[in-house]
Amino acid sequence: MAAFMLRDRAQLQLLAIMVEMGLRYRSAHLLSTSSTPSTMAMTTSLILLTLFVGLPLLAILYRITLITNPTRNKPIRHGRRNPNEPTHLLICLGSGGHTAEMLAMLTRAVETPLNRSDAKQNQKLEWRDFTHRTWVVGKNDAISAARAKEFEDLAPGLGTQEDLMAGKVKKATDSGPGTWDLVEVPRAREIHQPLLTSPLSCLQCARACWDVLLRYTTETREGHAGLARQRDFPDLILCNGPATATVLVLTSMVLRFFDVRGCSTRGKMRTVYVESWARVKKPSLSGQLLKHVVDRFLVQWPQLERAAGARAEYPGVLV
């Protein structure tokens, strides 16, 4: 009798377990059945999001990486000062102290002898290598415009004197001073301008910078040999801030991103940003924005080189 009772109890327990498992299976089945449409919709949304947002975003980031790589394409030149391959230098004067520092750096660079022993520490700038120079100044900045003209009058003599003192008569007389022009652009931000209106003034500045960079290009120019004697995009953009220079560099990035008239393919518009001598421990706002996108980011203090990151270079004091 006890055996039958134990067997019945075991059967009842087994039956109860089977019923419970059946209920669990049914509830799970109902739950999965009811959630299938929403799960499929979510999966479809993720796939579409990846295709239409993720992949284009990756392509954009990859393109930005290519155009901001310091080892990107460089123009192929057959000898320096080749009349068939004119070079174009663009200098941005930021007014006030920025203008004073830029002109001090240029004066020192033109006068400094060439350092052949250490290329990284070489601060020499061969002024006559650039057959055309474009000076960009802020609108109504008469002082910077006057200083640029004064420098253009003095610079050829500075380089010639250094060559003659070194006995390089042919080098001092084999080419003229080249040509130059001065262009005004709207300031990206006026002094004490409200931040609320800054985006509009930056857009106006960017539009003007776009025209400046395309100033000597044509729709048909794609680097053809027949047009090699014509002026072109700037080969080098030299700046030291502030906001106007930042907008100018970012505008050149947009042109290179879309390879407008072959500027990126032909290695045009390489950019050099020089941080102010007054910045000792922390980069300026312009420096923080541009240090990852310019070809060379130069600082004038060794401690700032460590603080500014891997792209920073310390060639010594430049002013």
Automatic annotation (TrEMBL):
GO terms for molecular function: N-acetylglucosaminyldiphosphodolichol N-acetylglucosaminyltransferase activity. It is found in: Endoplasmic reticulum membrane; Nucleus membrane. The chain crosses the membrane at residues 40-62. Its main location: endoplasmic reticulum. One of its GO terms (cellular component) is UDP-N-acetylglucosamine transferase complex. The keyword Membrane applies. The keyword Nucleotide-binding does not apply. It is a single-pass membrane protein. GO terms for biological process: dolichol-linked oligosaccharide biosynthetic process. InterPro entries: Oligosacch_biosynth_Alg14. Keywords: Endoplasmic reticulum, Membrane, Transmembrane, Transmembrane helix. Heterodimer with ALG13 to form a functional enzyme. Belongs to the ALG14 family. This is UDP-N-acetylglucosamine transferase subunit ALG14. It comes from Hortaea werneckii.
